[in-house]
Description:
By secondary structure, this protein is mostly helical.
Amino acid sequence: MEIVHQNAISLAWMGDAIMTMYVRKHFLLKGIQNPHKLQRMSAKVCSAKGQTVILDTLIQEDFFNADEKEILRRGRNASPHTKAKNATSEQYMKATALEACLGYLYLYDHAERLNVLMDRIIQLGDQL
Length: 128
């Protein structure tokens, strides 16, 4: 595994932005331009509840490689200083894990793998 110097919360912060960008782009390309509808649909996928369902499915599929599993573990064990607003603590921790993995893939220039993961996330998100 690459030596990852960033803490999991920093990676998750970056991953959250990346996920939001990919998901909103997906909905915009599908022709959804009303801002309220765009926000509602992207929030369904990018929320902690949506990310938990997506992460659980990806884990069942054995989607992640060893490096990504380590980042997921670090993300799940991270201690954010804020409380989850609309989700349980477990959902918030799983969402942080998924976001940390996305941040890691972006920051360490794994663009192809990031695209594969985001394509699968969007497919699963369309089913929510």
